[in-house]
What does this fold into?
Amino acid sequence: MIIAQITDLHVRPDGRLANDRVDTNAMLRAAVEALMDLDRRPDVVLATGDLTECGLTAEYEALRDLLRPLSMPVYLVPGNHDRRENLRAVFQADGYLPDNGEFLHYTIEDQPVRLIGLDTVVPGDGHGLMCRHRLQWLEEQLSQEPGEPTVIFMHHPPFLTGLADMDRINCRGGDAMADIVSRFPNVERVLCGHHHRPIQARWAGTLASVAPSTAHQVVLDLVPDNSPAMFRMEPPAYQLHVWSTYSGLVSHTAYVGDFAGPYPFVLDSDYPGHRPPAAGSEAGGSRRIDAMDRDIVTWVMVDPQRAGRLIC
Ligand SMILES: [Fe+2]
Ligand SMILES: [Fe+2]
It folds into this structure.
C-alpha cells in the first residue's frame, strides 16, 4: 500500500496568489499531475492541512477542482488556515467527514493501514491543540484496534523542531498526546504538516514527521528565538509512505518539477567495486544498472546476494 501525503496546499480562489507571490493553485495542479504520473500510483492521498489560504468557500471549490484528477481516495484534515464549516460544506459529499460535532476527525478502516485523521485547529489561532476531548477521542480510536498498523495524520506537529517561530505555533497538548500514543506500538507514524519542511523526529515511541509543502517552504533557520519565520521557493514536494508487512512503513520524499533525467547508473572503471567483464561476457568498461523498477522486497528475499550488490 502506498500512502501519498500532500500538505500546506494554501489554495486560493481562482486567479489569486498566496502571500502576493505564490501561485499555489498551479503548484498543487503540478503535484497532482506528478502523483498521477507515477508508475505505481498511491492507493490513498492524505492532505495534512492548510488546504486553503483563508478557508473561503471559493478556495475549497477550487481545491475540489484541483484534486479531481486524483483517481484514488483523498482524505483531508484542516490546518490553521482552514475553516471547518466551509471545508465540511464543500467536501461533505465525499462521505468520510463527520456529519456533525465540532471536530473534523475520523478513522479510515478499509485500508491495510488504519488511518486516523486529527483536527488540531483552534479557530482564529495559528497554533494547534489536542484538547481533552480530542485526546479522549484519539484514545478511543486507538483502543479499538490495538493490533492494526496505524498512521495518525494531523496538521500541527506535536513535537518541537528547532524552527523557533514555527514551534511557537505547534500543537499544544503534545505531551498528553505522547502519553497516549506511546501505549500503542502499532502506531507506525504521526504525519504532520504546518512547518513546510521535511522533518523527522523520534516521538512517543514512534516516528513523527512533517512533510514539505506542495507550494512554498519555510526557511531552514535553526537559530534559537529567531523571528519571524520567512518562506523561500525551495522545490515543492510530496511524500510517499510505503507499507508492506515485510518492511513496515518506509517513507520517501519526492520533488515536483521538471528535472533532467532519468539516466542509467554507469560504473566508472575507477570505481572501487568495478570488475572488468569476464571474457565472453558483455563488452565495455561500464555497467548499466537498470533494475530499479523491480520489487525490492521480493528481490531481497529471493536473491539477497544480488540485492547486496546493488550500487546506486
Ligand atoms: Fe501552511
Ligand atoms: Fe499551518
